[in-house]
Predict the structure.
Amino acid sequence: MRGVVISGGRLADAADAAASVMKDDMVICADSGYLHALAMGLKPQAVLGDFDSVERDAVVCETIISYPAHKDQTDTELCVRYAIARGCDEILLLGATGGRIDHELANVFLLKLISDAGKKGSIYDGVSYVFLVADELILTGDVGDILSVIPVTAQVVGITTRGLAYPLDNACMAFGPALGISNVFSESRAEVKIKEGLALVVWTKADKL
């Protein structure tokens, strides 16, 4: 089962984001992410948060869980943990970027929490998908799509890519300067393999540029 966590950040293309949600997904909203869900015509199974961005009484949902404003986790993290606890083996985050950069970075690094739980995770903002890769990622897209590899550990070793205009073969990248930005799909299938370390992989569809 896949969990879709909708937060209150920016959605560049709400209709496209809504199209990424499948019928059998468990939709979980973080506070004002509920408003995004309404705009996308989605009915969430659960809404969690401290309700500082949307009135709790305005929320219509079978499961509503309130938390104090003073807590150790963000509303989005609470939703991710909720999804994991309920058996989701894949989690897609929507509305998790934009707005305050501290929240945006915290949401991106929730991909590590998801990975550590043995689940698949991704972020989609209506333009780009973000993945955290420790071993292998295979994507099916279109020629001209953009793919960037961004190290988030001190060293990322043994990076090999296929299906890209500028392929890498057992390369190394260090955390710091963005050497892996803006590669281009030369085929409809792109692969990224990593032997050691962690990297964020950002995939942007050509028709969204």
